[in-house]
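User:
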Amino acid sequence: MPVGRFLGGIAAVLWRPDQDRYLILRRSAQKDFGAGNWETVTGRVDQGEGYIEAVHREVREELGVEVTIAFVIGVTHFYRGDPPSDENELIGAVFCCTTPNPDAVILSQEHDAHRWVTAAEAVAEFADSWLGQVIARADLMNRLLPDDLRSIMQAEGYAF
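Assistant: Predicted structure:
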C-alpha cells in the first residue's frame, strides 16, 4: 500500500460552561458541501500550520472570537464528498473549546444560524450523525476529566 496523502482537518466544539451548552452552526445555502446541515466549527489545516493554530484560526474566521482549548475529544478519518478519493480524504482532530465571551459570537458567511444546545438535545436531534456523537463524547469527557488533568493539559498545551 502506498504512503498516504491526506488533508488535515479540525473541528472545534465550543462549550459554554456557565449554561452547560454546546454551540451548533447551520451551514449556509451558499456552501458547496452540506448546505443546511448542522455542525461545529470545522476547517482544513493550512500548509505550514499545525492543528492547534488551525483551531484558533478557524474559530476566529467563523465566529469572530478567541478560544481556549479545554481538551482533545478525539480523531477522525473521513471523505468530504462523493465519491471518496485522494482529493477529499481527511484526517482530523476534534477539540473542545471555551470562549471568555460566548455572547460575542458573530457568524461568518459560512453559517446562517446558530444555537446553544444541551448534550441531551444534540443527541436527541442528531442521534445518527457525527454531530450528536461528538457532542455526547465532549459532554462525557467534561463530566469525567479530573480538574488536575485539565490544568496540566491547558498549561502544557497540546502540541509537541
